[in-house]
Amino acid sequence: MINGLNHLSTFIERKVNSARNGGHCVTCLSPAAFQGLCQGCRADLPVNRWYCYGCALPLAFATPGMRCGECQTLPPPFSRSLIPWRYQYPVDGMIGRYKYQGQRKFARPLLTGLAQFLEQNVEPEQRPDALIPSPMHWLRRWQRGFNQAQDIAEFVGARLDIPVAAGLVRRARRVKAQRSLNRAGRLQNLRGVFEVRGAVPERVAIVDDVVTTGATVRVLASALREAGAVDIQVWALARTPG
Question: Domain range spanning residue 33?
Answer without folding.
Answer: 1-44
